[in-house]
């Protein structure tokens, strides 16, 4: 019981706080914003109840059914990550070292500055093999594209109908049926998101947890969730508040149902972890483009700048994650005289395709940085072209 080293415990706490704080934007952000009249403790109690239920379901679902490396069934243990880390070829098991905690610390710092980075990439990259990392990127890019298309297509219809009705009838937004619908959508969204992202937190702990270890981990997450609610979502919440009509409980409800549906689809599609942040950003970007195309108080250029700003920050987070996964073990091996295992061994081996992948990903930092420093019309087009080219090239290689 509690055979967890200090670095694993530290990494777990850092990841739990960063993941809960960062992803409050996408999962609970609209819920917190549109229910600002309620005390934070009421909202926390609701979210905590769903978290406990989802955790218990995932843990008990695998309880006593896990197997070790020899194929023997392990009794009296469970896995709360919903099988996201089952593939040990893509997500190997080894002792947590100091360098595994650095990405979680970096994520926590970025969260304090309100940067919408992907927790899956930041936390899991250093634990994944190159095959596991590319699988996550592929699934996340497909998630962004599908979410963008859904948001754009659906809101081209809703912007002139439902959303127009909402704007003209603002006094009706707190009717009981909409409150019930929003709390229902939040229940589904929060639970499905937890099924996707528990892996980002529990990767620091043994894949098979004893009951007391599971209870202790759950207690830590609940405390950190309470802090997030007390801060009303934290700095990342500013990203959501910059979008159109998200404080309207009716609009927020539609967003939550769409996002939950997308996450559920990808959860059922495969057990590969993915960036829920990229899916959320794609959905919101498609929605904002639809509003601009229908002439609602903004222009396509302004929407492009906002969407590309979010995407540039998320891309920088991805590249930094890859570089940390590649560089931190080198530092550790140098300090320890070559000791210590590292999952991304293939990144060290001089493989030409791996090297090309690393160079190309870091090259994206240039248009991203130039755009964030000066989002002119030209830089907007350059960044959009660079992103599209990189995505098509990566997916082409990954699918082949």
From TrEMBL:
<keyword id="KW-0812">Transmembrane</keyword>
<feature type="transmembrane region" description="Helical">
    <location>
        <begin position="6"/>
        <end position="25"/>
    </location>
</feature>
<feature type="transmembrane region" description="Helical">
    <location>
        <begin position="380"/>
        <end position="399"/>
    </location>
</feature>
<feature type="transmembrane region" description="Helical">
    <location>
        <begin position="141"/>
        <end position="158"/>
    </location>
</feature>
<feature type="transmembrane region" description="Helical">
    <location>
        <begin position="104"/>
        <end position="129"/>
    </location>
</feature>
<feature type="transmembrane region" description="Helical">
    <location>
        <begin position="354"/>
        <end position="373"/>
    </location>
</feature>
<protein>
    <submittedName>
        <fullName>Uncharacterized protein</fullName>
    </submittedName>
</protein>
<feature type="transmembrane region" description="Helical">
    <location>
        <begin position="37"/>
        <end position="59"/>
    </location>
</feature>
<feature type="transmembrane region" description="Helical">
    <location>
        <begin position="249"/>
        <end position="266"/>
    </location>
</feature>
<feature type="transmembrane region" description="Helical">
    <location>
        <begin position="212"/>
        <end position="229"/>
    </location>
</feature>
<keyword id="KW-0472">Membrane</keyword>
<keyword id="KW-1133">Transmembrane helix</keyword>
